Amino acid sequence: MSDAINKCSAQETAACCCVDVGTVMDNTDCTASYSQVFTDQQQAQQALAALTDKARAVESDPCDINSSINPVDGGFQLDVDFIFCCQAETLIFQLGLR
Known about the structure:
Distance between the termini: 11 Å
Radius of gyration: 14 Å
GO cellular component, one term: cytosol
Family: Belongs to the UPF0381 family.
Order of helices and strands: EEEEHEEH
Low-confidence stretches: none
Oligomer: single chain
CATH class: Alpha Beta
Strand order of the largest sheet: 1-4-6-5
Structural class: alpha+beta
Strand content: 25-35%
Number of strands: 6
Protein name: Protein of uncharacterized function (DUF406)
Helix content: 25-40%
Pfam families: DUF406
Organism: Serratia odorifera
Number of helices: 2
CATH architecture: 2-Layer Sandwich
Shape: elongated
């Protein structure tokens, strides 16, 4: 499964996926979004379950998970927003998917 996490405003170095030391974490970016097309609905549901488990392993307070699986040309598109209680958890979750 290829990871398609976006909405990370932290500055990253492409060579090592490291966060710049000067990055300010001010809790304004607590959402990680994921979107990918799978060949069938079962694969999309399995990916959602795996991502949910990873989010639950990171959360200190319950993470709000909003998801949808919709038929599209070529398969089923999984769209998920993971809303954590703090930006540090969002960053840990995103880095854990790499």
